[in-house]
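Hello Y.,

Per our agreement to keep a running log of every chain we model this quarter, I'm adding this entry. I've kept the format consistent with earlier entries: sequence first, then predicted structure.
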Amino acid sequence: MSKIYEKYSNNLQRFSNWDEPELYVESGELSSLYLPSSISIDFVKILNEIASEGNPLINEKTKILILGKEILNEYRLIIEWAENEDEGKVLSDYLDWALIWRILYELDERFSNLLNSYKKDEIVCMRNFVKIYFKHWLDKLYLNNIIDKNIIEKNIIEQIENIFSFVKKSFEQLINEADWIGDESKNKAKLKLNKMKQNIGYYKLIEDNLFLNKLYKNYKINENMSWIEMFIQLNRNYYLWPTIDYQASFFVDGYYKWAFNSLAIYGGIMYSPWFDPKLPESLNFGGIGTLLGHETSHGFDSFGFNFDENGDRIDEKEIDKETNEKMEEKFKCFIKQYSNYENENLRPNSRFTLSENIADNAGIRASYKAWKLFTNSLKKFKNLKMSLNEFTDEQMFFIGNAFTYCSVMTEEDKNNYAKTDNHAFPKGKS
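Predicted structure for the entry above:
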């Protein structure tokens, strides 16, 4: 087990393009494409077992969406290595353990007691279970609670939506000012921007009981079922949930989803240092305004530019090759620039952070320009405490932005961050 983990960890940095576009392949090709020649798995049969109850929904020609084919190739290399390590015992031991792990709760006390000595508190485990399999209803309970208590105030949502309206205006100006983008590509980019959906504060459909009932209509569980029967039912329906633009409202971050061309900023992050209605707008534009600009930029970064206003993959025949070539050159400039910021001993491959670096740069430019559209003043504020009084609101914009990146990292934190997080180190962002 430790050998496989070590091999996987060491190889993680070999991913040269973390933000590669998605790929559709026929389900019948999965085994030959992503498994060693010595291994064959009937993925069509497995997917049908997961997705249906005796009514096959999938055949060999069914298109399957692959996210991160390079990572799957990496798994294939690890499997090939494990096949030959210790005469195949490494792979055999891992498969034995993987099988036991999946059914551990169904085995006798020798196994469950072993697990109980390592696992978290049972209450924590059950909370996680509910968050996975009943997340939409849990989100509704959460929203009912915080809205009733005015924890998320309607006027705060309206203020942030107003900031976003200025960010979108500034982004359109940035598109118009980019002399390296062809006219047709500019029009398509502006169409995508104008059609970008938004959820500020929380996912609005969670308030719709009809929507929720439709999601859970196939949940067929009752008190006469065994635990394993319930688990199989829940797991099957979990994978059958329709793909929707959704993240729980207690999620503390913002995100952009290319498949829906949609952006969200939820209640968990609508507080200081990102936003405070009592502070000058320059600080708020520097904070949550830049976050809104960052997420908007993901629609046009090294990954997002492959998709149109509806979230569909752009056909190669429709790509503006001249603009595309110029964009690739700019990607190289970003990689070179951030290679100067990153610690090469920790993270030798700055392509790993490319899409996030693009979003950081474009995001702050869009937010700064948005703030300039919001106000043309350079006044000083009299009501700020102590040393902040000496700064203009223009300077306050950048202070507000830098404040969101304040962090302290141990050497262990830095090592883990370099291997697992595709954002630049905070010092390289502020």
